[in-house]
Design a protein that fits this description.
- The chain crosses the membrane at residues 7-24, 95-115.
- With 125 residues, the protein is mainly alpha-helical.
- The chain folds into two domains: 1-66, no CATH class; 69-125, no CATH class.
- 74% of the residues lie in helices and 3% in strands.
- A two-stranded parallel sheet has the order 1-2.
- The longest helix has 21 residues, at 70-90.
Amino acid sequence: MKIILNTVGILAVILGVLGIFLPLLPTTPFLLLASACFARASPRMHNWLRTNPVFGKYLRDYENGAGIPLRGKVWVLIFMWGSMSYSIWRTDLLWVRLLIVCIGTCVTIYLTRFVPTMRVQKSDR
């Protein structure tokens, strides 16, 4: 099971890093998946992910229950709905459009209602 979790974690990190550069590929869900896999299978890889200078702080804050800054939530929603709108515009299948809207709505509700909004102090900016 550790081999499977480590493999999924490594693939999730790769997809998450690609998501930084590719506009339609999300970053955060893949990094959260990688963190969850490594937490169960490899403490060394989990520590590496949490101490990474690029995205480690965001993972630590999320995992510690501090949440996501309001600015981060706003940007996530803007980019998510922007890319979903493009996908809706590009498809002719009604069921695909409805599925995309349903997924986007569920993610929006989850992000706004269930993920805590972290208070950012002036010294953190």
